[in-house]
């Protein structure tokens, strides 16, 4: 299976450059896998498509303000730095604030460059690693943590050229709790407190897991054959309480609905004999067509980039032909795509 099979043409004007307000007033496409039927609604109407015995599973990760702006010390030229993770870590560990970090940045950061972020914080590029770099800060521990959280901005996707205050404010789910992501679980953006209250009133249960999203989610595949692609590793945790609720739902033939591809990946990583084993660790699970799902019965997700691993995941869940048919209809009806875009409920 080749990467090019997952390409499609998207008019640039359909890329969402800012969020919808209120959040739950985005468009919603409901896609029925068995019949192939497509229904067009507003997201707040998702309540009408949920059953009173459904179980919604959310990702409670919280995005870190990991984008920093500074100036090259010698020339005063502007520099942008994106913190990916600590040196020696496979993911962004919010409890660990050493001097050395793995970053990407622009312009093309050279070894030996010293970047001044404010009067107290500076960092030196000590190593060049393909597209990544290692930066050594002059602070560490709580001092560095305070600086990063104060100076940093939310890591909005690069296609959002002129972010607004609303863009920065809404690049976080309302129930985000555990710091650790350098990108957001965007399917969660559509939920408001009022909508969640209505969903609970209907009798739908909700549980949470954690998967800290790394930048690798958005990196292009580097092999023509998708079977040869190794997906980035990400930290996740599913506790016993969440696993118990999910397993009760599976045993009682109730729907487990994943809110987003990150939830899907976590649940399927922990699947054993169609039940979830509570655990925490690193997942490198790459889901693409041919994958047999064990846990997820329905999926809430956004519209994804061409040739992306996220698009491949939804194609695995609903078939490539059906997803591409739905995407074409979304384009014709002027749906908004990507992080701040509209939503799809695949059941």
Compose a concise summary of this entry:
The chain has 347 residues and is α+β, with helices and mostly antiparallel strands. It contains seven helices and 19 strands.
Structure description:
- With 347 residues, this protein is of the alpha+beta class.
- It has 2 domains: 242 residues, 3-Layer(aba) Sandwich (QueA-like); 85 residues, Thrombin, subunit H (Beta Barrel).
- The strands form 4 sheets. It has a 9-stranded mixed sheet with strand order 2-1-19-18-14-3-12-13-17, covered by helices on one side. Strands 5-6-7-10-9-8 form a 6-stranded antiparallel β-barrel. It has a two-stranded parallel ribbon with strand order 4-11.
- Strand 15 and strand 16 form a beta hairpin.
- The chain is globular and about 65 Å long.
Strand order of the largest sheet: 2-1-19-18-14-3-12-13-17
H/I helix tally = 7
| Shape descriptor | globular
What structural class do helix, strand and pairing data support? alpha+beta
Helix content estimate: 10-25%
The H/E string reads: EEEEEEEEEEHHEHEEHEHEEEEHHE
Low-confidence stretches: none
The average pLDDT value, as a whole number, equals: 94
Got a strand count? Answer: 19
Strand content: 25-35%
CATH superfamily of the largest domain: QueA-like
**CATH C-level name of the largest domain:** Alpha Beta
Please tell me the CATH architecture of the largest domain by its name: 3-Layer(aba) Sandwich
Alpha carbon gyration radius: 20 Å
Distance between the termini: 25 Å
């Amino acid at each position: 299976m080749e990467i090019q099979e997952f390409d499609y043409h998207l008019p640039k004007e359909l890329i969402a450059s800012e969020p919808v307000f209120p959040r739950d007033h985005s468009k919603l496409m409901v896609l029925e896998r068995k019949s192939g039927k497509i229904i067009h609604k507003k997201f707040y109407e998702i309540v009408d498509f949920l059953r009173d015995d459904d179980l919604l599973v959310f990702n409670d990760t919280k995005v870190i303000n990991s984008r920093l702006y500074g100036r090259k010390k010698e020339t005063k030229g502007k520099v942008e730095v994106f913190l990916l993770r600590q040196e020696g870590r496979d993911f962004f560990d919010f409890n660990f604030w050493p001097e050395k970090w793995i970053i990407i940045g622009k312009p093309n950061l050279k070894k030996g460059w010293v970047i001044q972020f404010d009067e107290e914080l500076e960092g030196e590029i000590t190593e060049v690693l393909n597209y990544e770099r290692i930066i050594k800060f002059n602070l560490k521990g709580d001092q560095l943590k305070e600086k990063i959280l104060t100076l940093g901005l939310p890591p909005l996707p690069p296609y959002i050229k002129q972010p607004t205050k609303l863009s920065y404010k809404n690049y976080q789910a309302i129930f985000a709790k555990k710091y650790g992501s350098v990108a957001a679980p965007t399917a969660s953006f559509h939920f408001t407190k009022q909508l969640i209250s209505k969903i609970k009133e209907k009798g739908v249960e909700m549980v949470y897991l954690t998967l800290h999203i790394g930048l690798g989610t958005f990196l292009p595949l580097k092999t023509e054959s998708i079977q040869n692609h190794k997906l980035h590793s990400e930290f996740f945790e599913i506790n016993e309480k969440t696993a118990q609720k999910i397993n009760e739902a599976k045993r009682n033939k109730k729907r487990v609905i994943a809110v987003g591809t990150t939830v899907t990946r976590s649940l399927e990583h922990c699947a054993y004999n169609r039940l979830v084993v509570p655990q925490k660790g690193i997942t490198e699970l790459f889901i693409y067509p041919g994958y047999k799902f064990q846990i997820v019965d329905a999926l809430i997700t956004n519209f994804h980039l061409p040739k992306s691993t996220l698009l491949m995941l939804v194609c695995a869940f609903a078939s490539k032909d059906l997803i591409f048919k739905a995407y074409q209809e979304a384009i014709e009806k002027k749906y908004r795509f990507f992080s701040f875009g509209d939503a799809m409920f695949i059941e």
